[in-house]
Predict the 3D structure of the following.
Amino acid sequence: MQLADLRIFTEPQQGATYGTLLAMATRAEALGFGAFFRSDHYLAMGGSDGLPGPTDAWITLAGLARETSTIRLGTLVSPVTFRSPGLLAISVAQVDEMSGGRVELGIGAGWYEAEHHAYALDFPSTAGRFDMLTDQLAIIDGLWKTPIGETFSYEGPVHSVVESPGLPKPAQARLPIVMGGAGRNKTPRLAARYASEFNLPFVPVETFGRQRERVRTACDDIARTDPMTFSVALVVCAGSDEAEVGRRAAAIGREPAELRLNGAAGTPAEVADTIRRYHDAGADRVYLQVLDLHDLEHLDLIAGEVAPLLA
């Protein structure tokens, strides 16, 4: 696994300005990481006050698209409850053009009910949100694939479009869609049809392996020919020694032992061993969730001491 297969994943709703995200994205690009992704949330979690307040995911990525040049950019993941499918398709295509074709769309059904109430967003039932996800995938895919000069129509249980010109188109011929989730049947089938990448965050290796096989089976069932990329997301907490591991764990309100159990934590050798286990189980790439967005030296350590152990 190369450094380009490692991606930086951030949670700015916990407290970050655009400038903070820009500093981390440009450092990640300079070091050679494959991508810079952010969550798409409007409310902090786990006791954080979230100051100075949330930044919108796609507005942020639009800014980063103009202030970076090589690193790929995307969301893990944009909830279908935040934006209509037409608005999302237009925004993502525009940011892709602004970036020169470096954008990826992570999309999901959404789960965080409190942020919907906090910002006047509707929060349907689980079944309702899954219907929204099904419609949005069909519509976004259809809008982007419709040839210029033709129109696209779709009627779904939640969202419908009538004779849409499907404009603008992304800069990429096929803009990657990233999906995830632990569902045994519907989720793998949707991913097999629409996704370029299937991601599972914060799960044990065995859970990742089982869901990977379900998705592979779903791909085989529809005779999919293009390969599916599989990935995981792990909280990272690396340190050159135990004192540095402890300092970084304390900065994000976690314990080193818990992070070693549930994330990629410890010395560079320990972090590399954890990543290697997921790679051996079939993960093509790994999203390293960096929770302290002011600790740019953390990225330096991962690029300089962890990545060489994976090459």
Observations:
- Residues 35-175 form a domain with the TIM Barrel fold (CATH 3.20.20.30).
- The chain has eleven helices and twelve strands.
